[in-house]
Amino acid sequence: MLRKKTKNTSHNVQADMTPMLDIVFILLLFFIVTTSFVQTQSVDITRPSTVCEQDCNKDTSPLIVSIDEHNQVFFNNRNIDIEAIQANLESRLVNNIEAPVIVKIHGDAHNLSLVSAVDQANKAGVANVSVARWP
């Protein structure tokens, strides 16, 4: 048996990276174009102060919405549903449209309860809702 000797010649083989870079840039461009950016919405909250800022002789008692540690909502010393805050505030604001609203929230209550209460007060037409924390 005769065997033919073959020379082992190593060729200098290099891969062309240009097509791969083209694909990467096309994918990057696709993801940038198809991404949607979401604008977050915020709720302005002011803390009540003890300093009289305007018309201190005016006798208006604030409307107080209380949220306890079990996320139960109280208005006028009665338990109400969190979705009923707007209707209750609207019925009380008929007598005095300028009445301030204070949302008292317990430290262990959920933030969603606070945001829902402030949102309901804003929907009722209250321009300035104050938030107070109670233990």
TrEMBL record:
Superkingdom of the source?
A: Bacteria
Single GO BP term: protein transport
Q: Gene3D superfamilies of this UniProt entry?
A: 3.30.420.270
Q: List localization entries.
A: Cell membrane
What is the membrane topology listed in the Swiss-Prot or TrEMBL record?
Answer: Single-pass membrane protein; Single-pass type II membrane protein
Q: Which UniProt keywords apply?
A: Cell membrane, Membrane, Protein transport, Transmembrane, Transmembrane helix, Transport
tRNA processing as UniProt keyword:
no
User: Looking at the keywords, is Transmembrane present?
Assistant: yes
Membrane-crossing residue ranges in chain numbering: 20-38
**A single cellular component GO annotation:** plasma membrane
**Pfam short name (any one):** ExbD
Q: Name one GO molecular function term.
A: transmembrane transporter activity
Read off the PANTHER family from this record: BIOPOLYMER TRANSPORT PROTEIN EXBD2, EXBD MEMBRANE COMPONENT OF PMF-DRIVEN MACROMOLECULE IMPORT SYSTEM
- Report the family membership: Belongs to the ExbD/TolR family.
Q: What is this protein called?
A: Biopolymer transporter ExbD
Q: What is the lineage of its organism?
A: Bacteria, Pseudomonadati, Pseudomonadota, Gammaproteobacteria, Kangiellales
